[in-house]
Amino acid sequence: MFYEPKNGHGLPHNPFNAVVSPRPIGWISTRGTDGYDNLAPYSFFNAVAYEPPQVMFSSTSTKPDRDGTKDSVAHIRETGVFAVNIVEYAAKDAMNQTSGAWDKDTDEFALADIAKAECNGIACARVSNAPATLECKLTQIVQLPGAANFAVFGEVIGVHLRDDCLIDGKFDVTKFGMLARMGYQDYAVVRDAFTLKRPG
């Protein structure tokens, strides 16, 4: 099968998300200038550089109360900071609860009964029991083709690691079952890993 996206795929569901998978989930926490905390998962998320460490996520839809984008991007535009919380399998239902298009005044931490803590270097809440949290300062927001597509880039200025996830000096994602997004409404959990050494 071959198709050109501009002409449609002819399948019952769009295969694009399933082809580019699994994808790590960035559980993005932000705080607006109005003081409201927001927490929302994004599967268009990844690390993009080592030195300095940098990450990105993309927001691809809108809410009627956010002028062409969603709460996360609106808050980051206002404050220039955000936190990326890593999602473990045990938090899958809470993460899913925060994915709804809730009103901009809704605190998803409270909505999904998620314990929050303050970040150390930025004015933002974080998931207190997350396996890891990256505190980020905005570097740029890039508007991509498409009405509501925004890529948000940030420099990581602080890293929280949960102690039980450190095994022999390494952050071990198999100890907590890192959650990843597949296509459609499917997810995967990382429980196995193997090592390959680069040639040379």
UniProtKB/TrEMBL annotation:
Residue span(s) of domain Flavin reductase like: 20-173
GO molecular function list: FMN binding; oxidoreductase activity, acting on the CH-NH group of donors, NAD or NADP as acceptor
A Pfam family that the UniProt record links to this protein: Flavin_Reduct
Signal peptide span: none
Gene3D superfamilies named in the record: Electron Transport, Fmn-binding Protein, Chain A
InterPro entries associated with the record: Flavin_Rdtase-like_dom, Split_barrel_FMN-bd
Domain of life: Bacteria
PANTHER family found in the cross-reference section: BLR2425 PROTEIN, FLAVIN REDUCTASE LIKE DOMAIN-CONTAINING PROTEIN
Protein name: Flavin reductase (DIM6/NTAB) family NADH-FMN oxidoreductase RutF
Biological source species: Yoonia maritima
